Amino acid sequence: MKTCARWLGFAGLLALAAGCVPSLQPLYTPDTIAFDPALVGAWCQTNKEDRWEFTRAGDDHYKLVHTDKEKHTGEFTAYLVKVKDRRFLDIYPEDSDAKLNDLFAMHLVAAHTLLWVPQIGTTLELSMMNPDAMKKLLAAHPAAVKHEKVKDGFLLTASSKELQAFLAASDLKELYGEPVKMQKAPAQ
Description:
The protein is α+β, with helices and mostly antiparallel strands. The protein has six helices and ten strands, in the order ααβββββαββαββααβ. The chain has an eight-stranded antiparallel β-barrel with strand order 1-2-3-4-5-6-7-10.
């Protein structure tokens, strides 16, 4: 999953191969944006080298810089979204300085990743959608949410409001799995 978050900064299509469930459309709409200043800061798992650093980037969203254990970074625009009593983080890659062949680069499509946020406080809990759980759900209920099957994964194609309705009705513990727990990181 960490690989997914890093490469999503490059492109949604690469994310599909890594096991994420990306979305073409954002989860947020103006009425569901829920900025929380408690998210601002750097967060890390205990004894892990990944770092998630959120800074305020306007009145209603964040800039996220994700740094993995190899010190590779990905920059994202992030929106905290409230759907009923549930919170999610919608991250979308910012332009990359990666040097890619022009022909190759024009085939990459950026996508939104929709993380479940069970807690923001002294601990930050985040969970990525589980592609195996999504596969099982869509096998049983193909019309549950608009999507396209791409290689071994799925690309969500539903509108923002349709995504909100889907997530409001979903069993998040089943769809997302166990959240990763992070603590505020020491200053670097």
